[in-house]
What we know:
Blueprint: E1 5-8, E2 15-18, E3 20-21, E4 24-31, E5 37-45, E6 51-52, E7 54-55, E8 58-63, E9 68-70, E10 74-77, H1 79-82
Antiparallel strand pairs: 1-10, 2-8, 3-6, 4-5, 7-8, 8-9
Amino acid sequence: MIIKKLRRKDNKLPIVGTKELVPGCAYIHGVDEHGEPVYEGGTDIWWDDQRTVQEDGGDVFIDQNGHEVLHHQVEEYDPEEDEE
């Protein structure tokens, strides 16, 4: 398997991950007088339903500074070539 590294096109920062949606159930005691949930403090995470966020026809990536990067704003690169 060949794994290709990604980085931002504009500032060359490495891509470290993808933006994910992880659904779950946040437990509540009930609702307050405004209809807002009063949370108990626990949440069950449904990992099997996790999915990568897509926008503008492709995956949303995260750079090393934690910023979102759209798929058309990234490029493949060879880290060994950059060391020279």
